[in-house]
């Protein structure tokens, strides 16, 4: 299925496509469904997402952004957010890290050409900087993002010895105490993302799961430089299953006729994040009406630290099933 010398991504669309892209990889240890590929594929995230600078306010992707699966219309939204984060970080002084991104997917993005990025510098302060980033394809704006960056994503000891105030909700127990070898889930070889489902949450309306970049059964992720850490973490935040959240957390089994992200917001609370390790997600669907569903995801690192929050509204159109 894979050649020993294969490294993902490859520079041409033809060599990107494998026979696994049209359906997810099923991982179910209880049924001995844990596919393994030897030797493992080397995944180079940097070459996947990297950009080149044209001017102080213009950047260009080096490769087209890929789709979630080969048959899906439009590039993966998480890839757009990920590259926008990288562009914003390239446009500010060193030491600044993103603490929030508010973005909108305005048009479909195809896989035939790269994204051209335009940056508007809103402010440059000592502690905070703000950028508006526009993603363009064939002279049309396909994605917009407002990104705020800060030098305060790491808690540093105070000179006076006092402890700064901090607070977070406890991580759900299911996301802290688990045996990953016993959890079932799915993986997406085209996006290099693995998802494992934990036991059902004891908290109503919550769908807990674990996610990471790289598929341990068949991929080896090449070292990712510090500069790309936030971009890589952003990559995994848009691959989620709202139908599973309704079924697991609320007990409503629905099948969407149409399901696509309208927007994507991330709050980065801390610098201690690593998408190549298991990230715990506590997902909660909120209001669903008019074909749109709002959901919130709290993301925890392996230590149980709440490192990010994702808020997203999806165009989630479900066929009516009940009569008045």
Automatic annotation (TrEMBL):
SUPFAM superfamilies: Thioesterase/thiol ester dehydrase-isomerase. It comes from the Eukaryota. Keywords: Hydrolase. Residues 259-313 form the Acyl-CoA thioesterase-like C-terminal domain. GO terms for cellular component: peroxisomal matrix. InterPro entries: ACOT8-like_C, Acyl-CoA_hotdog, Acyl_CoA_thio, HotDog_dom_sf, TesB_ACOT8-like_N. Transmembrane segments: none annotated. The keyword Cell inner membrane does not apply. Residues 72-149 form the Acyl-CoA thioesterase-like N-terminal HotDog domain. One of its GO terms (biological process) is acyl-CoA metabolic process. Gene3D superfamilies: Acyl-CoA thioesterase, double hotdog domain (2.40.160.210). One of its GO terms (molecular function) is fatty acyl-CoA hydrolase activity. PANTHER family: ACYL-COA THIOESTERASE, ACYL-COENZYME A THIOESTERASE 8. Belongs to the C/M/P thioester hydrolase family. This is Acyl-CoA thioesterase II. It comes from Candida theae. The lineage of its organism: Eukaryota, Fungi, Dikarya, Ascomycota, Saccharomycotina.
């Amino acid at each position: 299925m894979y050649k020993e010398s294969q490294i993902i991504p490859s520079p041409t669309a033809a060599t990107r496509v494998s026979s696994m892209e049209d359906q997810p990889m099923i991982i179910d240890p209880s049924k001995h469904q844990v596919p393994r590929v030897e030797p493992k594929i080397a995944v180079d995230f940097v070459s996947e997402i990297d950009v080149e600078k044209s001017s102080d306010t213009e950047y260009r992707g080096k490769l087209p952004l890929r789709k979630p699966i080969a048959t899906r219309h439009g590039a993966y939204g998480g890839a757009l957010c990920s590259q926008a984060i990288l562009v914003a970080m390239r446009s500010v002084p060193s030491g600044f890290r993103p603490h929030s991104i508010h973005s909108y997917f305005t048009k479909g993005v195809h896989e035939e050409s790269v994204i051209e990025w335009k940056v508007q510098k809103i402010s440059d302060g000592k502690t905070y900087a703000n950028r508006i980033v526009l993603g363009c394809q064939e002279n049309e704006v396909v994605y917009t993002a407002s990104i705020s960056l800060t030098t305060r994503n790491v808690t540093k000891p105070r000179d006076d010895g006092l402890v700064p105030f901090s607070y977070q909700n406890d991580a759900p127990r299911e996301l802290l105490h688990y045996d990953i070898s016993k959890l079932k889930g799915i993986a997406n070889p085209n996006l290099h993302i693995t998802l494992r489902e934990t036991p059902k949450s004891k908290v109503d309306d919550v769908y807990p799961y674990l996610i990471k970049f790289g598929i341990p059964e068949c991929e080896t992720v090449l070292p990712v430089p510090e500069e790309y850490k936030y971009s890589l973490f952003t990559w995994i935040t848009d691959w989620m299953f709202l139908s599973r959240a309704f079924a697991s957390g609320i007990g409503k089994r629905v099948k969407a006729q149409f399901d696509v992200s309208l927007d994507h917001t991330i709050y980065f609370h801390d610098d201690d994040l690593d998408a190549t390790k298991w990230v715990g997600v506590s997902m909660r669907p909120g209001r669903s009406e008019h074909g749109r569903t709002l959901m919130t995801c709290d993301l925890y690192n392996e230590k149980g630290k709440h490192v990010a929050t994702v808020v997203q509204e999806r165009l989630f159109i479900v066929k009516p099933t009940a009569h008045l």
